[in-house]
Design brief:
single chain, about 110 residues, alpha+beta, two-stranded parallel ribbon, about 20% strand, flat
């Protein structure tokens, strides 16, 4: 089938920051990158720089034949499809960690009346 097209499908999960705190915003971005990098490889034909940094920072080494990267570059998919399954909320704080909030910073003094 010389005119056949080959595609890929992504199970899309969008991450939103739990708060507007820049640490949560960055965490949501990193969570999205981990979900999306597969499509960068398949569609663009190369690993994105952010994943190469992630692999390096986490001591991950991909086992590849000498010509694997060239094959990925030479034969990207013809199309990309996706299914949107769910949204997630990301936070830079560990799960279960509570944020301390003091709604009223001034405490009222107790007045005893006799």
């Amino acid at each position: 089938m010389p005119d056949a097209k080959i595609g890929s499908m992504l199970a899309r999960m969008q991450s939103y920051p739990k708060t507007p705190n820049p640490a949560d915003v960055r965490q949501a971005q990193q969570d999205d990158e981990l979900n999306l990098f597969f499509t960068d490889v398949q569609v663009r034909g190369e690993y994105p720089n952010y994943m190469n940094r992630y692999f390096n920072d986490h001591n991950i080494t991909l086992e590849m034949a000498p010509d694997d990267l060239q094959l990925i570059k030479d034969y990207p998919v013809d199309y990309l499809s996706f299914s949107y399954y769910m949204s997630m909320v990301s936070s830079a704080k560990p799960a279960g960690e509570k944020k301390s909030r003091q709604l009223n910073s001034r405490r009222k003094k107790s007045v005893s009346r006799s």
